[in-house]
Structure formats: structure tokens, C-alpha cells
Amino acid sequence: MSVGFKAVQWSREKLIYDAILLAGVTLYILAFIGISYRIAPPKDLPEAIDVRIRAFGTCAFFMLTIILSIGPLARLYPWFRKLLFNRRHFGVLTFIIALAHAWFMIEWYEAQGNLPNLLAELTKWSDYGKFIGFPFKVIGFAALLILFLLAATSHDFWLSFLSPPVWKWLHMMLYVAYALVVLHVALGIMQYDQNPLIPLMLAASFALVTVLHLVAGWRERATDRGTAAASDGWIAAGAPSAIPDKGAVIVVAPGGERIAVFRDGFEIGALTNLCSHQNGPIGEGRIIDGCVTCPWHGWQYRLSDGCAPPPFTEKLATYPVRIRNGVVEIDPRPLPPGTPASIHMPS
Amino acid sequence: MRRAHRTAHRVLWPALALLVGIAFAMSLVLRAPPPAPAPPAAVEGQR
């Protein structure tokens, strides 16, 4: 949320997040190289480069595994939202580590004067018809290309330029990149190195990410089924007391988007559940300093009309609210963003 | 996430899990066996 352009809006939390991230990555790579040198000291330069290829490759893989676990973990356990707000920096760093992995691979060929062999490997068309023997480096390059695209667009400029829904579609390509990375390892190093840790690490990581996404997706399905609407089309959100003070309940019209119904003392208002920033789940946030606050990045809106407080200009769609027979009801037809629609209950 | 994203997510992950699971199992089953250790006579001969 900003009234002027800032390349990166640093905050204390982001600096701490990034410092922990950098320290973790540095420690992992140093430990990997240190242990590898102790177990089998490299005999020449190509072997030393090979250790670096493995250190950066495994680091990028584990980082991707963590990044892909944060989303569903945050859905299942709200504590993990702490890791969500700066996930983009995590993603950009992962791309840099993956790029270093690819660079060391090129250096490995160069150190042996074999750089043309790399091109020959990639253009041996008969290998593309094989399963074992498929040019696995091409799969790695495809994953790297996706990571580049995601890292390059990991900025609010692109989020705003592309619009949050398109940006989200683009960034869902990370799932495909992860699958490609698993195949890159399975058809690559797993074929040449008999170390049982490689398939174990690969299978365990992919299984973890898959199970988390399947469970989170399954839980979301129940919410998306929607609430049956009354004959006049309004949907029930429950008694006012059932809405937590300074919190919200989420209702869904059949086939529609989610609506967050907030209560702030005696005021009740309904807003779209999609934050205007990244389409984060507004209804899982709280009312802080009198404003509905998105749990992802802290963007704020007034409950009364869905407008961000001045000087900010973002607006959310609001929904008509009424209380009938002691039940809060919402008209699921959205009002234009910024339309006042909240109601006050008699005290 | 919009409804369409959630729907795509629910379709995509089972498909990815199935495809990657099959490819991973095949790559494990079809990989070349580890090289057999050299027979003692051959080792002796090399000395």
C-alpha cells in the first residue's frame, strides 16, 4: 500500500525475514560443501565445481519445497502466515540460487574444455524419444525459465499491471516448475548416482508438498460449495453474535465469489473476500485501528464503504446487509467498489 | 485466490501428483543397476 512509487517497501519485518533467509542459504551451502570435501575431497577443478553444482541445486530444490509448502500451511495453520508476507523475496532468492546451479554446470563443461559437448547433448534429437536418457538438462532449463519469469514479475508493478487474477495465474506456473525440477533430478543425477538419499529426498519432498496442497484444496472445497440463498436471493450469515467482534465470517453464494461479513462492535458490513492487492483472503483478517486488515500484507479498508483510508485510494466491492428475524443476511450482488453499505445494530 | 484459481488448483495437483509419481517410479525402476564390484582375481591382476 503506497501513495508513491518505491522499488521495495522495506520494513523491519522484511529485513529480519531476508536476513534469516540469507543466513539459512549461506549456512546450507557452506555445510554442504564442507561435508562433501570432508567425505570425498575433490581431486581436480571439475570435481570441485561438481560439489558446487550439487550444493546450489539441492538448496534451490529445498527452497522451492518450502515455498510451495507455505501457501497450504498458511491455509491450514494461521501461524504460517508469518512466512507468507515476504514469500516473493524467498522466490527471487530461489531463482538466483537455481541460476548459480546452472552457471556452475556451464563452468563444469568449460573447465574441461568441453563446452561444445553441452550443445551436442542438448541437440541430440534421438535422445528426446527416450525416457531414461532424455536430456534432463533441458527440463532443468525449462524450470529455470519459469522461475525467471516469476522472479521478474515478483513486484507490485507487475501485480498492478497484469491485475491480481492474471498475476496469480502466472504464478501458479510454479507448480509446473516444481514438477519439472523433480523430473530433472529423477532423470538426471538419480540415474548416475546410486546414493539412496537422492530418491528418498526427492520422493519425501514431493509427497509433502502434494499432500499439503491436496488437503488444503479439499478443505477449501467445502467453503466453495456455497450457502443456499433465500427466495429473494439473500444469503444468511448467522446471528450477529456469531460473527466474532473485529473479525468476520465468510459466506459464499452458490457459484459466486466469497464474501467477508465483518462485525466491529455494533457495525456490520460485507466486503468482497478479495484484497485489491493480491486477492488475499480479507475475511481471515481482523479489524485493526478501525480498519479491515488483510492477513497477507496488511492492506487496510474501512468497513463502512470498503475504501482504503486516505491518502490511499484502493476500494473493495461492498454488499448490502440487513438483519431479518435476528439473522444477518447479505445480498450477494456486489455494489460498485467504495459504496457505503454497512449497517448499525441497535445497541 | 479467486474461485477459478481454487478450482484449477484442485484439478492441477492430483494431475501433477499422478504424472510425477508415475515418472518418478519409472525412473527408479528403469535406472541402471549399480556396477558390480570387480572380482578378486581382477583386482589382484590390476595390482
User: Distance N terminus to C terminus of chain A?
Assistant: 34 Å
Instruction: Enumerate the spans of chain B where pLDDT stays under 50 for 5 or more consecutive residues.
Output: none
Termini Cα gap of chain B = 67 Å
The value of Rg of chain B in angstroms is 23 Å
Mean pLDDT, all residues of chain B: 84
Largest beta-sheet characterization of chain B:
none
Helix content of chain B: over 70%
User: Which pair of protein chains has the largest interface, and what are the residue counts?
Assistant: A-B, 34 and 26 residues
Mean pLDDT score of chain A, rounded? 92
The tally of strands of chain A reads 11
Low-pLDDT runs of 5+ residues of chain A are none
Helix fraction bin of chain A = 40-55%
Major sheet of chain A, described briefly?
Answer: 5 strands, antiparallel
Could you give the order of the helices and strands of chain B? HH
Assigned CATH class of the largest domain in chain A: Mainly Alpha
Q: Would you tell me the structural class of the helices and strands of chain A?
A: alpha+beta
Secondary-structure topology with pairs:
The complex is a heterodimer of chains A (347) and B (47).
Chain A: H1 12-39, H2 45-76, H3 81-84, H4 87-111, H5 115-122, H6 136-152, H7 156-162, H8 164-171, H9 173-187, H10 189-192, H11 197-224, E1 235-238, E2 247-252, E3 258-264, E4 267-272, E5 286-288, E6 291-293, E7 300-302, E8 318-319, E9 321-324, E10 327-330, E11 343-344
Antiparallel strand pairs in A: 1-10, 2-3, 3-4, 4-8, 4-11, 5-6, 6-7, 9-10
Helix pairs in contact in A: 1-2, 2-4, 2-9, 2-11, 4-5, 4-6, 6-9, 7-8, 9-11
Chain B: H1 3-29, H2 40-46
Note the main attributes of this structure.
heterodimer; A: alpha+beta; Four Helix Bundle (Hemerythrin (Met), subunit A); Rieske Iron-sulfur Protein; 2 domains; three-stranded antiparallel β-sheet; 11 strands; B: 47 residues; mainly alpha; 2 helices; rod-shaped
